[in-house]
UniProtKB/TrEMBL annotation:
Pathway: Glycan biosynthesis; glycogen biosynthesis. Keywords: Glycogen biosynthesis, Glycosyltransferase, Transferase. Belongs to the glycosyltransferase 1 family. Bacterial/plant glycogen synthase subfamily. Its EC number is 2.4.1.21. This is Glycogen synthase. NCBIfam families: glgA (TIGR02095), PRK00654.1-2 (NF001899). Residues 297-413 form the Glycosyl transferase family domain. It is an enzyme of class 2 (transferase). It comes from Leucobacter weissii. The keyword Transferase applies.
Amino acid sequence: MARPLRRVLSVASECAPLLKTGGLADVVGALPAALEPLGWRSRILMPAYPGLLHRAGRSRRVWRDDDLFGGPAAVRHAKHAGLDLLLLDAPHLFDRPGGPYAVEGRDHPDNHVRFAALSWVGARLAIEGTVDRWRPDVVHAHDWQAGLVPSYLKYAGSAVPSVLTIHNIAFQGIFGADQLDPLRLPSWDFHSDALEYHGLVSALKAGLVHAARVTTVSPSYAEELGTPQFGFGLEGVVAARRARGEMSGILNGIDTAVWDPAADPHVAPFSAGDPRGKALARRALLEEFGLDEPSGPLAVVITRLTHQKGIDLLLEALPGFIGAGGAVVVLGSGDPGYEHGLAQLAAAHPRAAGVRIGYDEALSHRMYAGGDLVLVPSRFEPCGLTQLYGLRYGAVPVVAATGGLRDTVVDATPERLADGTATGFSFGEDGAIDAAGLRAALDRARELHADREAWSRLRERAMRAPFGWAASAARYAGLFEELAR
């Protein structure tokens, strides 16, 4: 007789395909399907942002609270796109215009309250269960928005173990100590070994301290977080947990059913073994942006336009790349200065550079399919999914050698090209992630692209790289099993 499936409650601020602002949503949405064959069935708790209950379809109330940090709230159970969802319906916290975290570029001033409420409900569901008698064996909290879940479990004396996954340590959910009592946090734990962070409270630090185990999204990022350069003030806490064997780096995967060029409804089908549709996608992308056929490679950039993502490096390096025969298409939004700089680049090279400000999921699929290169010059990158989508679609990555980019892209050195292991181009192995290094990597990519046979071999190896969820899900399942025992 088969053993009953164990249960994991995943608590997160976003989940694809319901709502996505970045790679966190893709991970939260894809991991459950990979865990189920390994004996773990997931429910995902996330806020019911405007319109989400309607999109999710039929639902039923499974939990309620008459006063959740200032107003009534309920949790509604729904199933959507193969996901088992628990939607936190708290209009006083989540029914508002703008995105999940900000409106018109400004963070919601009560974000600490909104996501403390999400964490509180996650803990209560683990302790009390739902009206349909569902209780988790393990709680999996994601980033600072769910960082207080382990703390609330601890303060309640719960035996349900928790895992905190850090997707990006740069965002920590910091607020004043005057909020401890309103958010049901004990003042006696406001000290440097727990909630206190430079006189304030850090939701992420709380999770780092109180979770049974901590993971992050790539092995290299796990190492980097223990250093002042990448730890953003939490390197000491990270180093302590690593020293006790309580922190690990588990590389993200991608949903290979959603991201499959052979079955993608947005593009002409192609595969590593039959790449003919790739040429059709490339031609269609050039036409969509009104660009001429370049003599060199067509590069795509799909990213948030921020300093972390190295957009200033792109603005320095791309004019030379275009001048040498390349072309580029950009999709993203973010810093107004970078948006303006990219618009100027497109205006200066109207037949070789196209820019679309915003985000369009279908267009991103067409860009990966049509691009020869995908550019990811991030100054730090916990894992990165962009390069993984690029590999899958034969858009050969050009990346900075940091975090998960280092773990997933094998640089096309002469040795790696000769032994057949190269999958892309990287720069900054010496720690110097700058425009000169990006220019040199683009030059190498452009030169190899001119050798049609060598380029075809590299692209095929990239497309065959194994970056689904199977191996990573097995590590999560093993961790959950250890904690549940």
